[in-house]
Design goal:
By secondary structure, chain A is mainly α. Chain A is built from 14 helices and 2 strands. Chain B folds into 2 domains: 2-221, P-loop containing nucleotide triphosphate hydrolases (Rossmann fold); 226-292, Alpha-Beta Plaits, CATH 3.30.70. Chain B has helices at 41-48, 70-76, 92-103, 107-120, 136-147, 166-182, 194-200, 218-224, 241-246, 267-280, 295-303, 314-329, and strands at 2-11, 15-25, 30-34, 56-61, 64-65, 77-80, 154-158, 186-191, 203-208, 211-216, 228-234, 250-256, 259-264, 285-291. The longest helix of chain B is centred in the middle third of the chain and has 17 residues, at 166-182. Classes of the chains: A mainly alpha, B alpha/beta. The complex binds adenosine-5'-diphosphate and magnesium ion. Adenosine-5'-diphosphate binds at residues 11-12, 15, 17, 35, 37-43, 327-328 of chain B.
Chain lengths: 316, 330
């Protein structure tokens, strides 16, 4: 055995430490295919069941309403020329008019002709939320299992410890969002003509921003807690309200005033809006700029808070 | 190598976990903190390894202040925490390499060293198995290997054999001795097992309720109790008390029922001298025994209770550890 000439060859580097810790998380994640599938399964089920069953465009279609071929109305329904006793309308023409109206309603309210496309892209926000929360909270496990004690006794940067959690959340979310979009496409999502694969890069950027903000919140929230039960309960409690108080399932413009205010604060709204504009809607640069600015602000504020709180905790 | 002066840690403004302790660890020695659960051993280690900030007092490791030069300290030391800290989902090799990354050891060197250390702790055959499948002893050995990845000059071992069965415990002692011999390294360890402190440590500090009660080598501590007791009988009827009394190192002699109870320092050396002195005067020794005080008695003497009371089964210890963690963090 070579004698230990105490040469100190440690050159702790921020990037290497950060990457080593992130790689560990990713390895654990890939080692557990069941969890991988479970995470994707949830939005997939929502998309398949809710997206397909809520056939809102079908609601207004003539097939649904089943008009008789001839519809007679009392004469006073026609304002001009006056004096008719009875008016008979052609059902087929009326169906056409209805179809036109229904597609106008869809266009105005949802921006696209089918509800499935509208809500399926919202599933990206859902999966980002769940993934970010769970990855942020996994710091509780690291503490419980002593791994965190070990890491903080090494010269690795404390900031790298926290950033590795955030980075891990973002990378996972990007991967899972890609899978969800692909599945949605297979189930009938219709892209707008302005969609190009290059848009995905912007979508990834937006996913990164939301994951950074959300996972930071959850790191800050759970770094002092030793039990997983409480944070899990918390996630269960807030995911639903968080999703329904955004534009994932329904356009904000049709919601009551007070609800619209909530929707406007909810960061999920902005990610969903970005994804919609870059996939199923025509690109609207102004809207995109606003969305990105909001998400960047959200990410910056909460990442700072999260890192500061966690850092304070790690250097007691 | 390690200096602590009035080192103190107060939790939540009221719980004094470590209470103004002062000690000095010399180069190359194995220095042990001996004390029951909750005595403040882990808290002391955590301050020395820069994980906790002292409330009061100062400490330095290799001349680096643990607060102001914490990064220098971290680079130069190895730590084997009380709990198992390896990642269960990774293999032994991956765990060691992760440590190497955190210390920033150049990749090529790290690979060679990881294999060497796995060899040292006899885990080479298991290096590509997930830690999940390891036994307690294997995990402890892996932790040892991880703690050595940066070739530390000082190694901190917190309860290195906690919860291990007797055989595994003896094996771990063997590794620790080898480490000290092959890698010239200073070791600071804590334990609440008396035999462990006795067989491994060059010097021991007994700590209770956050205070150091006494420091010394196991031999000194035992001698401090008044030394060994030699029991002697002679065939002749005469009183030989004065003859025995004259022998070097004899502290006192008591005669009871024809037996002489002799308190001596360094029994092994003094016993032949006594026998020799008696023979010279024409007496024949018919009975002889030598009893050395154990650390147990030392402990009893200084703390007023037996440390045995504190030990529980492995299962109890695990439960205690869980509670401790919850209580601490909750
Ligand atoms: N983080 C903490 N917060 C509050 N109290 C703590 C904390 N860590 C340890 N303690 C308390 O300090 C005392 C000493 O604990 P510790 O150093 O772990 O003892 P030992 O390692 O000797 O068993 C115990 O009473 C323990 O409950
Ligand atoms: Mg302890």
């Amino acid at each position: 055995m070579s004698s230990m000439k105490a040469v100190n060859d440690c050159q702790p580097s921020f990037v290497r430490g950060l990457w080593a810790l992130t790689r560990r998380e990713l390895k654990k994640w890939l080692n557990d295919p069941v969890m991988l599938v479970m995470f994707i399964l949830q939005p997939f089920i929502w998309m398949g069941l809710l997206g397909k069953s809520m056939n809102i465009s079908g609601l207004f279609s003539a097939d649904n309403i089943k008009l008789p071929p001839k519809i007679s109305l009392p004469g006073y329904a026609i304002l001009s020329p006056p004096g008719l006793q009875e008016v008979v309308l052609d059902g087929a023409v009326l169906s056409q008019i209805l179809a036109e109206i229904s597609s106008r309603i869809m266009e105005v309210a949802f921006g696209v002709a089918d509800y499935f496309s509208f809500m399926a892209v919202g599933m990206v926000s859902m999966i980002v939320t769940i993934t970010a929360m769970f990855s942020g909270m996994s710091i509780v496990w690291d503490r419980r299992l002593g791994f965190l004690d070990k890491v903080i006794s090494t010269p690795v940067s404390r900031t790298a410890i926290i950033l590795s959690k955030i980075l891990n959340a973002a990378l996972r979310a990007m991967f899972q969002a890609t899978v969800i979009l692909a599945l949605a496409y297979l189930l009938g999502l219709r892209f707008s003509p302005t969609f190009t694969p290059l848009n995905l890069l912007w979508i990834y950027t937006a996913i990164l921003l939301l994951s950074v903000g959300l996972s930071s919140i959850f790191i800050a929230f759970s770094i002092r807690s030793t039990r997983m039960e409480r944070p899990i309960q918390f996630v269960n409690l807030i995911t639903m309200p968080l999703m329904f108080s955004s534009n994932i399932f329904f356009p904000a413009s049709l919601m009551p005033e007070w609800m619209q205010a909530v929707v406007r604060i909810n960061p999920l709204t902005y990610l969903t809006d970005i994804v919609r504009h870059l996939t199923i809607l025509p690109i609207d640069v102004t809207a995109l700029i606003v969305d990105f600015m909001y998400l960047s602000l959200f990410a910056a504020v909460f990442a700072t808070i999260g890192v500061v709180l966690a850092w304070k905790y790690l250097t007691r | 190598m390690i200096k602590a002066e009035n080192l103190t840690k107060v939790f939540n403004r009221s719980l004094v976990a470590v209470d103004h302790i002062t000690f000095n660890v010399r180069e190359g020695e194995i220095f042990g903190f001996l004390g029951p659960n909750g005595a403040g051993k882990t808290t002391t280690i955590n301050m020395l390894i820069t994980v906790l900030k002292p409330t009061e007092g100062t400490a330095s490791v290799l001349g680096f202040d643990v607060v102001r030069q914490s990064n220098e300290v971290r680079k130069a030391i190895g730590v084997v925490p009380q709990e198992f800290t390896a990642d269960e989902d990774l293999t032994g090799y991956e765990n060691i390499m992760l440590c190497a990354d955190l210390y920033g050891i150049p990749r090529e060197i790290a690979k060679k060293r990881a294999l060497e250390l796995l060899e040292l702790v006899e885990l080479t055959n298991f290096k590509d198995k997930r830690v999940e499948t390891y036994s307690g002893g294997m995990r402890r050995r892996l932790e040892l290997a991880c703690g050595l990845i940066n070739y530390p000059k000082v190694l901190f071992l917190d309860e290195p054999t906690l919860g291990l069965d007797v055989q595994t415990r003896i094996a771990v002692w063997e590794y620790i001795r080898r480490l000290r011999k092959e890698y010239d390294i200073t070791i600071f360890m804590t334990t609440h097992y008396l035999e462990e402190a006795d067989t491994l440590c060059d010097r021991i500090a007994i700590i209770d309720h956050g205070k150091i009660i006494v420091i010394g080598s196991p031999g000194e501590l035992k001698d401090g109790l008044g030394g060994d007791v030699i029991t002697i009988a002679v065939r002749e009827n005469a009183d030989v008390t004065s003859i025995i009394q004259e022998v070097e190192n004899v502290k006192n002699v008591r005669k009871e029922n024809g037996l002489y109870y002799v308190k001596v320092v360094e029994g092994e050396v003094t016993a032949p001298l006594i026998i020799e002195a008696l023979r010279k005067k024409g007496y024949t020794v018919t009975r002889f025994s030598l009893t050395e005080p154990t650390l147990n008695e030392v402990y009893l003497e200084y703390t007023g209770r037996a440390i045995r009371d504190m030990e529980g089964s492995n299962a109890e210890i695990m439960i205690q550890r869980l509670h401790l963690r919850r209580a601490r963090n909750g």
